[in-house]
Amino acid sequence: MIASIEHTITYSNFLFSMTVPCIAAWFINWAMLLVWYRHSLEIFGCSSGTAIDGQPVLTEEEEKARKDTAAETFMYKMFLVFGIFLMVVGFFVGINVAGLAVGFGVIFMSVRTVRYSRAKAKRRNWALVDQISEKYLMQVDWPLLVLFSGLFIMISAVVQTGFPEDFFHEIFKECFNDPVSDCPILFAIMIIAFSNVISNVPLILLIKPFLRSMEPGKVSRGNWIYISWVCTLAGNFILLGSAANLIVADQARKMGFDILTTINHGKFGIPATTTCCIVGIPLLITFMQ
Asked: Is the pTM of this model over 0.90?
């Protein structure tokens, strides 16, 4: 979405800007996860305190399905690697990122569905009937789609009132020409706060009119790259910060693991996000293209 708004952002300058801060944030999250959940992971001399009941992790049917999958995925993996290579080359060349990604995604899913259906029917002597597509469509979380569709409609209506643009101009009245250079801490706090009130993707729609008033070119691009990194991390702050969090929590609940609550998520998400921002923001500003 950000790349479609700020046309001076290319795949290469975005990649080079994000590499160092993202690697740093990855190591921070990785280290904190290992320490925070050392009992559950049974590392560093800790144990979970629960006994293993001796039952297999996978049922016989699941084990058979895993072998079936391994038997038919090698050629698809080769096709996938080759396709991803062509896609990344297309990104660097300058072909539209969104169109190219959607096009290859459709091809990958279609080929995967056909290969899986044919291989499964052949191994089990079944009639060649495609039931995989229906299976995937049944797994779509339609209530969640309705929720976010309504959220985007509401945010769009709010933006048209002009209030968000006036609000951000008032908040950043001392640094509205270039918040990243003049008030990066305040800018980050506002991004994190709004991302966890309305979610990080709707935030982009809300703040877009304000950023469009900036000097085009490097200044505008730098602010959009800054927002893209901070609001992505902000999605880890609390459960509402990102649609991905809500999807994972909902899927876990449907499988009988109703443990990803706002409090449980926030106990790790808040300190992890804060630490990543403190370390990563200076790195992002330093390496920003």
From this structure: no
